[in-house]
Amino acid sequence: MHNDYYPDNWVVLKIEKGHTPTIYKVLAGWSGGYTTADSWRMNSGIVRAERKGDYWQFYGSSGSCYVCHKTQYQLRMNNAGIYNELKKQFGDMVEILPEDTDWENVNYEN
Asked: Quick check: is 106 in a domain?
């Protein structure tokens, strides 16, 4: 059994760590409401992506699936803070991939 997540906004991070394989992760954000705060999650690492109509489905190594609307590819306040922290800590080893990336044809297991 796996968990499905439906973020309000999302980006894909490419993380390169020296001699280890490159990792691709979904950095997802949810906007809070009157009684809830903004929140974010980062998946375990993308192993596969599929296009389903107006959505991209990203499957993670833990078995989760992030169902992401293609028009919501962006940083917002709910996920920008963690991205800025990652950039501060890891610099050029972390980058946001372009919105028009063909997610189905990325080599996630390099």
From this structure: no
